[in-house]
Write a structure and sequence with these properties.
CATH superfamily of the largest domain in chain A: Aldehyde ferredoxin oxidoreductase, N-terminal domain
Number of strands of chain B: 8
Strand order of the largest sheet of chain B: 1-5-4-2-3
Strand content of chain B: 15-25%
Largest sheet of chain A: 6 strands, mixed
Oligomer: heterodimer
Bound molecules: iron/sulfur cluster
Structural class of chain A: alpha+beta
Shape of chain A: globular
Order of helices and strands of chain B: HEHHEEEHEHEHEE
Radius of gyration of chain B: 16 Å
Helix content of chain B: 25-40%
CATH topology of the largest domain in chain A: Aldehyde Ferredoxin Oxidoreductase,  A, domain 1
Number of helices of chain A: 24
CATH architecture of the largest domain in chain A: 4-Layer Sandwich
Number of domains of chain B: 1
Number of strands of chain A: 17
Largest interface: A-B, 58 and 40 residues
Chain lengths: 578, 175
């Protein structure tokens, strides 16, 4: 990954490309690279949809290699949803393809002077940018079908739907999967709106005639990758549970724990949970000839995803994952998997974040725009977003805006980004991460390798009350590091429980780049990523007052356990005190 | 015997919702699982990674006491960070301290009692088979959900005056 492609979309006479060496960004990948470029080059006070913002697309350090599960892509920018820095992570094939083509990143800069829509085609021969206004208004599915007629189905596509073109704050960027469907999204934070503001409808990545990236030490790399795959396969979660049921296996567990946010975070349990659980979803998929065990990109050995067919056995969408089933399901009182799958399909087609949309619909239901449990109304809401009606544009701007417009107090957001599927009153440790992550409420921000293995920040007494703050800090550091490798965060389990598997990951990076990193270096990388992100946010006007959960979490007790969020402001302010 | 069908797949919704078992109460969860249900210690320690008692995550199954009318949920190891916090005795258990089970009174009288057990994910298949053979109580409404399924002919049902709302179900199946 020896070059960065910069595309000035606002250049005189139309978009101009420049190829530059990575320079000061050499050795960085994924989130480390996107956050370094955004924090260094984007004025923190700029408008997220203005010419000064940049959209940075970066494969991970190990993407484009044979390393298992290494195909996650990072997309970074100043977020139009939060107003802070954003790294949004996606599966699909784009990361592998971009890395194989030798790009450490594509950076979209400037802003077109016209409202033309562009495609950017990248292959081993170079880069071609074309204006194509016939693509205007197309949903991601129709768009990819149309582009396939020209570029085929052996390439990877990144694209935006109508929501991105309308520059809505919940807009996502779709990445095509192994079947060339636009199902894997850089969903969080409105990255699709930034791509829309740059006038780019699609990026087509063609790696024909390009081989896998060669490691510096091929033998050592192969051997480390074997240990890595063995480690992932032998672990009961990454090897069996995830593959059999997907991430939605968590529905029953969170519900049992009384931490499953229901009816816009009113209760911690949902009566219809068994109807939408991962166990039920997997059985239904099998029965209809779908597939509950499927990877989101080639090279995944854990395969937490799947294919969801409609009742006639025809493909409808990819297996809706836990966050999506919750957001559109329990959070809105909907207990019908077909309705949830349809909402997932529409979200992917219009190009909006499923978590943000589900949370927004929950807020709209609380406002009385529809009754909780009304699946038809939920589908209609998302269709309005796709059509760009006045109501649709409000909903497509996310839960915070919708709450303001309709006068709702209980709006589950931090830094304007909707909370995922874990009530922070039940799992207070994740509340710490929701509150303090530079990304806004984000469950993946503190998710990965444990400090017990990395040894970050000294020894933590996990059972002390302060443990939650220390753990959240250490997990956020570790996650930032893993996000930079291109590894899927679900590796966390195997790495968490099996130190030898964590060692295999470090050995792979070392063998690939001819380095000699250890656990401390990985921790230092994670810290530097977070430092860049925090500094950007501070300059963008964020203070400790933004590192808080909405007041109702500390005021309203959550049934059935009737608990409130108890972590104090002073404790939250210790998270980044390292 | 039933050939080529997975009994536990059909019973999955019933196990997720919870079945009732007549047991000797007053023992620990480990004693219940090993001594009363006959599950091996190795299986309990390696496969039953996540345990809830009355909706609270249990860290120590040797200490948590099974009482009359309690609800126990059993699950394999769960993915993701929150999955990890739910694991019994896990490194991240402090993150969910607010919903951890605390045994206030480890000494409890013993006797017969009725408890509700829920099975999730990987345990539906393994423990579901065991429970199907040993028999479990369900409500009439759940029994009616099994009508017309392929296991209906293999069910034996018994009603007890003592539990007027429940039916004891056994499945004569190995598959
Ligand atoms: S485990 Fe799931 S999210 Fe991770 S790479 Fe595989 S399919 Fe994608």
């Amino acid at each position: 990954m020896e070059k960065i492609l910069r595309v000035d979309m606002g250049a005189e006479g139309g978009p101009k490309t420049t190829l530059v060496p990575p320079g000061e960004y050499a050795g960085l990948g994924g989130r480390a690279l996107t956050s370094a470029i955004v924090s260094k080059e984007v004025p923190p006070l700029c408008h997220a949809l203005g010419e000064e913002n940049k959209l940075v697309i970066a494969p991970g350090l190990l993407s484009g290699t044979i390393a298992a599960n290494s195909g996650r892509l990072s997309v970074g920018c100043k977020s139009p949803l939060t107003g802070g820095i954003k790294e949004s992570n996606a599966g699909g094939m784009a990361s592998q393809t971009l890395a194989k083509l030798g790009y450490a990143a594509i950076v979209l800069e400037g802003k077109p002077k016209t409202d033309n829509l562009y495609t950017i085609f990248v292959n081993k021969g170079g880069v071609k940018i074309e204006s194509d206004n016939t693509l205007k208004g197309l949903g991601n599915y129709a768009l990819i079908e149309k582009l396939k007629a020209k570029y085929g189905d052996k390439v990877s596509y990144m694209s935006i739907g109508p929501a991105g073109e309308m520059k809505l704050a919940a807009a996502s960027i779709a990445c095509t999967d192994m079947e060339c469907r636009p199902t894997r999204h850089a969903g969080r934070g409105g990255t699709g709106a930034v791509m829309g503001s740059k006038g780019v409808k699609a990026i087509i990545l063609d790696d024909t005639g390009v081989s896998m990236r060669p490691p510096k030490d091929a033998e050592k790399f192969k051997e480390a990758n074997k240990r890595w795959v063995d480690g992932l396969k032998k672990h009961p979660v990454t090897g069996e549970g995830l593959a059999a049921y997907g991430t939605n296996v968590l529905t029953n567990i969170l519900n049992e724990a009384g931490g499953y946010p229901t009816h816009n975070f009113m209760w911690g349990r949902f009566e219809g949970h068994t109807k939408i659980s991962g166990e039920t979803e997997a059985a239904l998929e099998k029965e209809r000839g779908g597939n509950p065990t499927h990877g989101c990109h080639r090279g995944c050995v854990m395969r937490c995803s799947g294919i969801y067919n409609d009742k006639y056995g025809n493909y409808l969408t990819k297996q809706p994952e836990y966050e999506t089933v919750w957001a559109h399901g329990g959070n809105c009182g909907i207990d019908d998997l077909d309705t949830i799958a349809m909402l997932d399909r529409l979200d992917d087609d219009y190009g909006v974040d499923t978590i943000e949309m589900g949370a927004t619909i929950g807020v709209a239901m609380e406002a009385g725009l529809a009754k909780f449990g009304d699946g038809e109304a939920a589908i209609n809401f998302v269709k309005q977003v796709g059509k760009g009606t006045n109501l649709g544009r409000i909903l497509g701007s996310g839960a915070a805006v919708t709450g303001k417009v309709f006068g709702v107090e209980r709006v589950p957001v931090v830094k304007n980004q909707a909370m995922p599927a874990y009530d922070p009153r039940a799992v207070q440790g994740i509340g710490v991460t929701y509150a303090t992550s530079p990304m806004g409420a984000d469950h993946t921000a503190g998710y990965a390798v444990g400090s017990n293995i990395l040894g970050i920040g000294g020894k933590t007494d996990a059972l002390s009350p302060e443990g939650q703050v220390d753990l959240s800090r250490n997990l956020q550091i570790a996650t930032a590091a893993v996000d930079s490798t291109g590894m899927c965060l679900f590796i966390a389990f195997a790495v968490l429980d099996q130190p030898e598997t964590f060692q295999a990951l470090i050995d792979m990076i070392n063998a690939f780049y001819g380095l000699n990193l250890n656990g401390d270096d990985v921790a230092a990388l994670g810290k530097s990523v977070l430092k860049n992100e925090r500094e950007f946010n501070i300059k963008a006007g964020f203070t400790s007052a933004h590192d808080r959960l909405p007041g109702f979490f500390s005021r309203d007790a959550l049934p059935p356990h009737n608990i409130k969020f108890k972590v104090t402001d002073a404790e939250l302010d210790q998270v980044f005190n390292w | 015997m039933i050939d080529k069908i997975r009994v536990t797949q059909i019973l999955s919704p019933v196990f997720q919702k919870g079945v009732f078992m007549k047991v000797v109460v007053g023992s620990s969860i480990r004693e219940l699982l090993q001594d009363q249900f006959g599950i091996t210690r190795d299986f309990v320690d390696s496969q039953i990674a996540t345990v809830f008692l009355n909706g609270k995550a249990v860290d120590n199954i040797d200490r948590a006491i099974v009482r009359n009318n309690c609800e126990i949920a059993l699950s394999g190891a769960m993915p993701g960070f929150v999955g990890a916090t739910m694991r019994r005795g896990g490194y991240y258990s402090s993150m969910r301290a607010a919903i951890s089970y605390v045994e206030e009174n480890p000494i409890s009288g013993s006797g017969e009692g009725l408890i509700r057990i829920k099975l999730y994910n990987t345990l539906i298949d393994s423990l579901g088979k065991l429970f199907a053979r040993q028999g479990f109580f369900i409500q009439e409404i759940d029994l009616s959900s099994l009508n017309g399924t392929r296991i209906e002919p293999f069910l034996t049902t018994t009603r007890y005056e003592q539990f007027p709302d429940l039916v004891l179900v056994k499945v004569d199946a190995d598959s």
